[in-house]
Amino acid sequence: MQIMATRILSSLHHVSSSASAAKRCLGLYCLWHRSISGFGASAAVDVDPSIPPVQIDHSQLLINGQFVDAASGKTFPTYDPRTGDIIANVAEGDREDVNRAVHAARKAFDEGPWPKMTAYERSRVMLRFADLLEKHNDEVAAIETWDNGKTYEQAANVEIPMVVRVFRYYAGWADKIHGLTVPGDGPHHIQTLHEPIGVAGQIVPWNFPLLIYSWKVAPALSCGNTVVLKTAEQTPLSALYVSKLFLEAGLPPGVLNIISGFGPSAGAALCSHMDVDKLAFTGSTSTGKIVLGLSAQSNLKPVTLELGGKSPFIVCKDADVDAAVETAHSAIFFNQGQCCCAGSRTFVHESIYDEFVEKAKARALKRVVGDPFKNGVEQGPQIDSVQFEKILNYIRSGVESGATLESGGQRIGSKGYYIQPTVFSNVQDNMSIAKDEIFGPVQSILKFKDLEEVIRRANATSYGLAAGVFTKNLESANTLMHALRVGTVWINCYDVLDATIPFGGYKMSGQGRVKGMHSLSSYLQVKAVVTAMKNPAWL
Ligand code: ADP
Question: The domain 312-498 belongs to what CATH superfamily?
Answer without folding.
Answer: Aldehyde Dehydrogenase; Chain A, domain 2 (3.40.309.10)
